[in-house]
Amino acid sequence: MTDQIAVARSYIDALVSHDGKSVPFAQGAVRYEVGVKTGRSGKHLQRSLSRGPQYRVIMGVRKLDAVVDGDVVHTEYLLDAGLFGRKLATVRITEDFVIPASDLLIHRIDAKITFRKKRQ
Q1: For residue 108, which of 41, 61, 56, 54 has the smallest C-alpha distance?
Q2: Which of 77, 67, 73 minimizes the C-alpha distance to 101?
Q3: Strand 58-69's sheet: what is its strand order?
Q4: Quick one: which of 19, 28, 14, 21 has its CA closest to 98?
Q5: Contact 79, 86 (CB under 8 A)
Q6: How far is 55 from 14, CA to CA, in rounded Å?
Q7: How far is CA 120 from the centre of its chain?
Q8: Which residues form the DUF8021 domain (predicted)?
Q9: Residue 86, CB half-sphere, CA atoms under 13 Å: how many?
Q10: CB burial of residue 20 (10 Å; 0-12, 13-18, 19+)
Q11: How many Å apart are CA 15 and CA 75, to the nearest integer?
């Protein structure tokens, strides 16, 4: 695993642990979800990961694939969400992380979410 992938993985791990303090964000980091700005600074993203209700439903991440292309780490994974220990949905997440090898900080995240149809 490259250092850049390890940094992206720290963010993905924090989605499940709800502990954003250890994720290395640049001060001016931003996050876009389906084109909508959902993170406005590194501190905001850390707080959101740690306390944001939108992340509390995340139960697990699996089937993670990551590839580095220059300063961008392309990831794709399945995210399980639910309440009270019961899985209610699985979504496919594609995220591109801008993580320059020169500083190993997350500067930008672009996320796309695809809902999976439940098998009959």
Answers
A1: 41
A2: 73
A3: 36-39, 25-33, 106-115, 86-98, 72-83, 58-69
A4: 28
A5: no
A6: 9
A7: 29
A8: 4-111
A9: 3
A10: buried
A11: 14
- Which two three-digit tokens encode residue 53? 């209700």
What are the Cα distances from residue 11, in Å, to 24, 26, 80, 97? 8, 13, 16, 10
Closest CA to 94 of 120, 72, 117, 119: 72
The string of pLDDT tens digits covering residues 47-68 is 999 999 888 999 999 999 999 9
Task: Kindly indicate the confidence band of residue 115, based on its pLDDT and cuts at 50, 70 and 90.
Answer: confident
Please give the model's pTM, rounded to 2 decimal places: 0.91
Q: Over the stretch 7-51, which tens digit does the pLDDT of each residue have?
A: 999 999 999 999 999 999 999 999 999 899 999 999 999 999 999
Name the burial class of residue 67, with classes exposed (0-12), middle (13-18) and buried (19+) by CB atoms within 10 angstroms of its CB. Answer: exposed
CA 113 to CA 108: how far, in whole Å?
17
